[in-house]
Amino acid sequence: MYFSKMHSIGNDFVLVDNINQKINLSKKKIRQLSDRNSGIGFDQIIIIMKSDNIKNSDFKIRIFNSDSSEAKQCVNGIRCVFQYLRLNNLIKKRVIRINTQYNTAYAFLINKKLICVRIAPPKFEKIQKNTPNNHIFNQKSFNFLKKKLDTILFQ
C-alpha cells in the first residue's frame, strides 16, 4: 500500500490514493496502522477516490479516525487532500469539490501557501435532558457567523 503522511494545524493524516491503487482497509487494519508504536501512527486516515458523479464533485473521500470510526468531514484533512492532489498533479484547478460522508466541501487555493476549505455547518441532534445515566448538563445557545448554535455542557 502506497500512502502519504501529512499534517495540518496539529492533526496528522495518512492519505491513501484509491484512484491509482485499489485498497480496502478493514476496521482492524485501520486500528493497527494508527498505532504510533507499531504502525504508521495518525489521527485520521483518508481514502481518496474518484467521484461517483463528476457533475457534483471532483473527488470523494472517506475519513477514518484512529479507532476506526468514520468521521463525516474534517477541514484539516480536506486541506491535506487538496495539497496531495496538487503535489501529485491530479488537479490543475484552484477550486475543487470533494464529497464527504456529510456533504460537499470546497477547497481552494488562496496563494502558494494558503488553502481554504468551506464545509457545511454541523447539524446538532436534540438530546433529552433526562439521560439514562443521570448525567447533568446545560444546553446553551450562541451566535457564530450569523447562525444560532446550540451546545451541550456536561457536568
Tell me the domain tally: 1
Helix content: 10-25%
Query: How would you sum up the global shape?
Result: globular
| Average pLDDT over all residues | 84
Topology as a string of helices (H) and strands (E): EEHEEEHEEEEE
CATH class, named Alpha Beta
CATH topology: Diaminopimelate Epimerase, Chain A, domain 1
Number of E-state strands: 10
Largest sheet data: 8 strands, mixed
Through-space gap between termini:
44 Å
Structural class: mainly beta
CATH architecture descriptor: Roll
Instruction: Catalogue the unreliable spans.
Output: none
User: Could you give me the name of the CATH homologous superfamily?
Assistant: Diaminopimelate Epimerase, Chain A, domain 1
Radius of gyration: 18 Å
Q: Work out the helix count.
A: 2
Percentage of β-strand residues: 35-45%
Question: Mind explaining what this structure looks like?
Answer:
This protein is mainly beta and 155 residues long. The chain has a single domain (4-118), classed as Diaminopimelate Epimerase, Chain A, domain 1 (Roll). Helix content is 14%, strand content 40%. The chain has two helices and ten strands. The chain has helices spanning 27-34, 75-87, and strands spanning 4-8, 11-17, 44-50, 59-65, 70-71, 95-99, 104-111, 114-118, 137-144, 147-154. The strands form two sheets. Strands 1, 2, 3, 4, 5, 6, 7 and 8 form an eight-stranded mixed beta sheet that branches. A two-stranded antiparallel ribbon has the order 9-10. A hairpin with a 2-residue loop joins strand 7 (104-111) and strand 8. The longest helix is centred in the middle third of the chain and has 13 residues, at 75-87.
